[in-house]
Amino acid sequence: MEIIIQANAAVANGVAARLFAKAIRRNAGAVLGLATGGTPLALYRELIAMKLDWRKIVTFNLDEYVGLAPDHSQSYHYFMWENLFRHVNIAKKNVHIPDGLAKDIPKFCAKYEKQIHAAGGIDLQLLGIGTDGHIGFNEPTSSLASRTRIKTLTPQTRKDNARFFGSEAEVPHHCITMGIGTIMEARHCVMLAFGKNKARAIAETVEGPVTSMNPASALQLHPRVTVFLDEDSASELKLSDYYRWVYDNKPDWQKF
Ligand code: GLP
Q1: Which of 24, 126, 193, 224 has its CA 20 to 30 A from that of 104?
Q2: What are the structural domains, with CATH classification, of the chain?
């Protein structure tokens, strides 16, 4: 894992945006895995401002709440169109987000996996992280080999995400999420985590044992992961000085 600690989230988002822009410019038909939540918002704003060409870009989102229609203000469909897609020239047919209203969820999930495969797999996967170490909506004890499927949200995640809804009672109990196994097949995973409330999950992800108790720790087994942190989310890392030293001494050809 490459751990990049920046002074604050704004600086880290700037570097992450350059990484995404480079991938889009290098491959006009790149397949991107995208994430929701508060964390990626600033990155999406930066990418919009860069006026990149999204015509041939293909996207797959990590997850969606079960039971929310695409036009529900808290659905991840709505989030993605509102915060990214409607501001860029992406083709609607190239956008894939799990269908929270799917009648036959297992069938839909199998189709989603097939679509990722048919697109040639995900080149660059954006990830946030939950305070319990979840990625996508793969909650603790998710199988590290899991594929796209229905999951039940933990009380903690429902509490964490209640801030986007009117009240906790309105947060759905179920979701469809890419599995850890699905995420692990992306060629490059980029995680963003900012703020003190992510510090413990990040320390466990980067320096703890690989365990389904912190699903993000599976990324230790991935050959190419870049983690962008601010001082707060990095505050519980034991080897933070080492990560800073590595980044400061990056060879030119590896710079973003
Ligand atoms: C949700 C999403 C995750 C996201 C997490 C953290 O549960 N399913 O993909 O990483 O929230 O969200 P935030 O960035 O708002 O802290």
Answers
A1: 126
A2: 2-251 (3.40.50.1360)
